[in-house]
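(Structure overview)
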Amino acid sequence: MLSEADLQNDYYTSKKRLLTLIVAAIFLLSCIFFRLAYIQVVWGRGLQAKAAEQWQRDLPIKAYRGDIVDTNGNLIATTETGYSVYVRPQSVGNAEQCARVLSDVLGLDYQTVYDKVVKRGVSEVTIKRQITTEKAEEIRSHNLEGVYLASEGLRSYVYGDFLSQVLGFVSSDGVGQTGIEAYYDKYLQGINGVLLTETDLVGDELEEGGTSYIPAINGLTVTLTIDAVIQTIVENVLQLAMYQQNPKAARCIVLDVTTGEILAMASKPSVDLNNLPRDNLEYLMQYSKNTLLTDVYEPGSTFKVLTASACLEEYRLGNKKAFSAEHIFRNSAGTRIIDGSKISCWTKHANGKHSNQTLSDALNNSCNPIFTDIALSLGKSTMYDYLEKFGYGTATGIDFAGEQAGLLVPESSVTNGDLARIGFGQTIAVTALQLCMATSAAVNGGLLMQPYLVKEISDPTTGQVVKRFTPTLVNRAISEETSAQIAKMLQRVVDEGGGKNAKVEGYQVGGKTGTAQKFVDGALATGKYVSSFIGFFPASSPKYLVLMIVDEPEGQSYGSIVAAPYAGTIFREIINYKNIAPLE
């Protein structure tokens, strides 16, 4: 028989066990409660979405890509209504008929289409994207079960091969791949929408199921600095140069020297953006590339503008190694021997020609030895300072992918022979755009501007400007005084010298010609030249600058004969278009 003490101990032991069980039960129930609360609160939306996915099928609604317009609002690239064809295998009634109709209308292989139509384990398959409205209507007329059409944008370029290297193109999925289409893709592409339909577990649509629609948000409008009229003038002139000179290529840039806005930019040959040769990638990449930014070349005599600018600016600053505008260069021989290598003028200097010249005369006559003298006198440190000030050796910063920085011999490695040739545009490789911006800085008052291709980005539904671009000053290259001197000298080149074929009667045009022999496989190529002319007007207050390049022309190769006349034509057409009055 248990004692009273033993009974009391058993009582307390049972009580402890019961309390432990109660606490454990409460703890377990609390865990379950908090777990359920966590699932409902934290995971709730995600689980609801997953549940909805099991009972819904989505059909994408592609956003329409934004328009690209010129500086005056003229449409250049737009998006037309196209369609994508989808099939939901679970909903197809007659697979053979479905495959036959789709393959006939879309020009596809029957077996390939049939395999997609009967494919199991997928909610839907894509048959073809970006078909026309006419083909979509033909498919609709057959009332095929399980076949769906989703509207999407079909990229269209108003003028085909117009501005093609600048605009670039998009992929079959509507994603920008090159040019403006790629650089501003995030603004142009928009946000896709979706059409949701309720289905059963195997993917068949419920007869009384609901449908929900999330609309797409179309892309923004990109407004270029390009003027379509000036661009048309340039493209027509380039086409004429291709016909008359039969060159490897012809290229041109027109820009506003006061702002850095690119008004026209083109190269021939080009590609038709509405009919891209996607089956020939080598051809596509060769002729869709914007070589005015991506390729470098020796500029030749057009580069003498920098050497002359450096000379006059250093003289103004008191550099005793520089020369004044009135200094007479003695040049009877017409040659220089630098580090054992002979540098000659383009003419034989017969009968004392080019014997005694000022800097203006040297520009007018494009006399290489004078610019050799200037470069060597200033020295490599000073010359390289001006190369930097004028933007050579670095990219211009234009809003375009793939721009090159040009090629400079490292300052520490420059020999006297290298420096002498740099003075007249050899032993240095630049992009056409770099040359344009540097020359602009030489004549616009001395300001190196950053070039740009897009003026603003706006919402087409509201007209609100989302992003606006304005002129950007990179640095001051030379003084206004020196710039005015250079502009006046270059006007004389057009009035009296090698640039006279670019002259426009009644107007002040300045400029400089260039003829550079090409290098192929590291050696000078016989008979292969780049002929160029860079000019501007009005010379007294520069606004428009034109660079005309003819690559490997047949016959004559001098820039004064091959390139300058086309630049003159462009000047005259711009004057007519802008209704610019002649000087009184």
The chain has a mean pLDDT of 88. The radius of gyration is 35 Å. DSSP finds 20 helices and 21 strands in the chain. Residues 445 and 480 are 4 Å apart (CA to CA).
